[in-house]
Amino acid sequence: MTTIERKEFLDQKAAQYEHPQFIETDPVQIPHLYTHKQDIEIAGFLTATISWGNRKSILTNAHKLMNIMGNSPHDFILSHTPTDLERLEGFVHRTFNAIDASYFMTALKHLYTQYPDMESIFIPFAKDIDLQKALHEYRSYFFSIPHPSRTTKHVSDPMRNSAAKRLHMFLRWMVRPDTAGVDLGIWKSLNTSQLSCPLDVHSGNVARTLKILKRKQNDGKAVLELDTALRKLDPIDPVKYDYALFGLGVFEGF
Predict the structure, then answer these.
(1) Cβ(248)–Cβ(254) under 8 Å?
(2) Which DSSP category does 72 fall into?
(3) Which residues contact 146 (CB under 8 A, 6 or more apart)?
(4) pTM given for the model
(5) Is pLDDT at 119 greater than 90 in this prediction?
(6) Which of 45, 148, 192, 235 lies in the 20 to 30 Å Cα band around 228?
(7) pLDDT in tens, 219-249
(8) What is the mean pLDDT of residues 179-198?
(9) What does the DSSP 8-state code read for residue 225?
(10) How many Å apart are CA 237 and CA 97, to the nearest integer?
């Protein structure tokens, strides 16, 4: 494949998979349940956090979290008491359990009592080229109050060479316009050009097959390499190709 052929192929596949039908089996359907900005942020962040493993299980457990919050995430976060957090007893998604979920609720309450929305934390640290530092600073803030040491593993740090796949997916949901009906585009202060590809086993394998990624590990260095390649294909909206890479890997076995 020439560079031009590769771009044409990926453009076509990105357009094919960025379609409302995509959300029928994807975790992005959870934040789509809401219209209030803070509800969308909270639903998106919690859902992205548990988005690994079986997709059916992800959706089941994300809905459980929403139900525990009375399907009013922002109201619950602001008003919950320690007694309310007892509703989380028994909750588990793989290694994310009730202890982790309880801290996430507590940390989000701390956040929303200091900031009007989650977007406001990212803005001061966003670089023109990427949001890696902004994610690092967000993580630092998220764990700035007393927390269980076990819970820190559930928010990755791209500054420590993590691919931070789930966080980059969350940012894609929040930042990319909702033109095609998949992403939500509620954060207006950040640009699509700053986004990084949510690199996982599927997108990584397809990217290597297409020879736009050489690094074998799916880590922070691989994200940088893939970002560089995708930004050459589309410097304004490189992460649209996440749909192409993911769709080719999951739905076509490319």
Answers:
(1) yes
(2) -
(3) none
(4) 0.97
(5) yes
(6) 45
(7) 999 999 999 999 999 999 999 999 999 999 9
(8) 97
(9) H
(10) 35
